[in-house]
Amino acid sequence: MAFAIRPAVLGDEAALFGLIEGLAHYARLAHEVTGSAAALREHLFGPRATAEAVLAEHETDGVKQAIGFALYFPHFSTFRTQPGLYLEDLFVLESHRGHGVGRALLAEVRRIAEARGAGRLEWAVLQWNEKAIAFYRALGAEILPDYRVCRISFPV
């Protein structure tokens, strides 16, 4: 299956948000989706953009379809005193898994991180998602056993 990886651009927000909804459904977290394509547009492409994304696209009969994405943003390691990238989400439509799309998305984010002089690329994975854990380990990722994600949510 042929596909292409490219940076998300203004106009991609609806397709990207559709993939985010697919991710939420897959992760059993659809009830937590409170965002919108409009908010995504503001935060990815507005004057104070806070995140970036890359899209995977598959073309059939001249029609391009977004089949996966990776969304990331800068962070900083105090121990390394060095910037890094945090991969917020990586998702590929189930119908397109097993063809190297996830691997290519992660490789592109890694390439971006290295080009920017990042000391680390970090992300979290759901404990129950054994397929994702195995996928990340196969790519050389270290799964940190001593950390738990902490969160304080603010009203939307």
Provide an overview of this structure.
The chain has helices at 13-26, 37-45, 101-115, 130-138, and strands at residues 4-7, 52-60, 63-77, 82-92, 121-123. α1 (13-26) crosses α2. It has four helices and five strands. The protein has a single domain, classed as Gcn5-related N-acetyltransferase (GNAT) (Aminopeptidase). The chain has a five-stranded mixed β-sheet, sandwiched between helices. It is of the alpha+beta class and 156 residues long. Helix content is 30%, strand content 27%.
Rg, Cα atoms, Å? 16 Å
Main β-sheet: number of strands, strand sense, barrel status? 5 strands, mixed
Helix fraction?
Answer: 25-40%
Give me the secondary-structure category. Answer: alpha+beta
By CATH, the superfamily comes out as Gcn5-related N-acetyltransferase (GNAT)
Look at the structure and give the mean pLDDT.
94
Level-1 CATH class name: Alpha Beta
From the spread of the alpha carbons, the general shape counts as: globular
- The CATH architecture is 3-Layer(aba) Sandwich
Total of DSSP H or I helical runs spanning 4+ residues: 4
**Counted beta strands:** 5
Strand-residue proportion: 25-35%
Order of helices and strands: EHHEEEHEH
Strand arrangement, major sheet: 1-2-3-4-5
- The name of the CATH topology is Aminopeptidase
Number of structural domains? 1
- Low-confidence stretches are none
Query: In oligomeric terms, what are we looking at?
Result: single chain
First-residue to last-residue Cα separation: 40 Å
